Amino acid sequence: MALAKPSVGLLYNPAVPAVLDAAGTLVDHIEVIPDRLWYDFGTGAEHRFSHAHTAIAELGRFAGRHAMIGHGIGLSLPSAMPIDEDLLAEVAASHRHFGYRWYSEHLSMFLAPGGSVPNAQAGMGLPVVHDAELLEIVGRKVELLQATLGVPIALENGTIFSAVPNPEMSEPEFMNRLHERTGCKMLLDLHNLYANMRNLNWSPAEYLGALDPEIVIEVHVAGGDPLRGHYTDSHSRRSPAVIWDWLEEWGPRFPNLAAITFEYHESYHKRIGLAGVVAELEKMHAAAEAISGAPQPTPAFA
Amino acid sequence: MSLDQFQRALTDLTASPALCRAVRREPALLSQLYALSPLEQDRLADIAASNGMEANCMIYRANRLAPVALNCPDLCAALGDDLNRLISAYWYAEPTTNVHFLVETERFCQFLEERDDLSPQARKALSREHRKVRDRLAATAAMADRDAFAVARVMPPA
Ligand SMILES: [Fe+2]
C-alpha cells in the first residue's frame, strides 16, 4: 500500500511571512515554537508571560491556510526536576489557540536542576544519560503532556558534542523504549544526526537501522557551519546533500512519517535567500512524493 | 537520586572553561563539588576531557552573548576587546541565564553602569542602548496582563 504524502513545511521565524506571501502554496504546515510567542518574566511574576501580540497576530493570519505543529524548547523533559506547570499551561493555551497537529520537545537538557531560579537555563541543549532512570523521568512527563494537550507528543534527537560514555542504552533504543512505554513519537532531525556523525563519528545507517520505523512522525532538515574543528547545528544554510540521500533511502521505511520541516534562523534569511528557501521546499516536496510513490507535480513556484 | 547533581555539574562545566580545566587536572574535584555516583563521576571526567567540551563552552558563550549582541550592538562595538572580560565578569556574578532576552540584557547593562572602567565611548553607547532596552522591557511588562489566548483558554479542548 502506498504511504500518504508527508506534509512539507517550515519552522516559523520572523522571516517566514515573506516566504509564505511569495510561495505559500509550497508550504503545507508551519511549525511554531510557542516559547517565541511570549516574554517569560519567570516564576513568581504577577503576570509571568507577556504575549508577543504582533507575532501571534501575524501567525494567526496564516493559521487558516496552513496546518500548525507545535515545537517547544522550554519544557526540558530530561531535566531531573518537576515539569514547569505554568509553562505547560501556556503551551496548552497556545495549542488551543492554534490547534497543533502534534507537539514536540527535545531529548536534550535545556533547564538545569539546582539553579537559583526554577527556570535556570543550561544555555544550550546538553546531552543526557540514556538509562532506565531517565526513561522513567521522561516517560512520566510525556504522559502528562499527552493528557494535557490531547495530541501526539514527539521528542527530537539533538546535536551533541560530547557523548555520555558507557550509556545503558543507545539513543535509538531509548526512543524505541519510550515509544513502547508511552506511545511517544520521534521527530528525527537528520541534520542533528549529520552533525553527530561529523563530530562523534556516529554511523547514520546504524542509528537509523536501530530505530523502530513506526515511531518516526516527522523529519527535520537544516544546515550548519564548521566551528574550530567542530560542526554546529546553526540553522544557517541549506541542507547538506547527504541528508536528501538519507531521506530518500529511509523515508519510505517510516510508515507514520507525516511531515518534513526545514529549519533555519531568521538571521540567515539573507544568506539562504528566498530562492534558497523555495529550493528547499521543492526538494522536500520531491522527497515527500517519492516517499508516497505518487507522481511528482509541477512546482508551484519557479 | 544523583542525576540532578550530574546534570548540575554538566551545566556548570559547560558554563565554565576554568572548571573544565580544573576537572581535567584533578577529576576528584567533581566528587568534592557534587554528590555523584562513581559512574557519574567517571562519565563527567570523560566529558570534561573530551574534544567536544570546547564546542559546548563556545556555544554556551555564543548563546549567552546573543541577547546582548542583538540589543546593544553599539555598546559591544565600543567595548571592543573589553567585552570578553566584562561579560565574563558579569556571568561570574550572574551565573543563571535569564530566558527573557531583555531582562538578561538589562542586567548586563546595570552591571556595567556600576563599573568605573568604561571608556567614554562605551559609557555613551551604554547610556543610549540601556535606555532603549529599559523602555522595551517596560513595554513588554505593560502588555503582560493582555492575554492573546484569552478566548482559547476558556474553550473546551478540541
Ligand atoms: Fe530540529
From TrEMBL, chain A:
<dbReference type="Pfam" id="PF05114">
    <property type="entry name" value="MbnB_TglH_ChrH"/>
</dbReference>
<dbReference type="InterPro" id="IPR007801">
    <property type="entry name" value="MbnB/TglH/ChrH"/>
</dbReference>
<protein>
    <submittedName>
        <fullName>DUF692 family protein</fullName>
    </submittedName>
</protein>
From TrEMBL, chain B:
<protein>
    <submittedName>
        <fullName>Uncharacterized protein</fullName>
    </submittedName>
</protein>
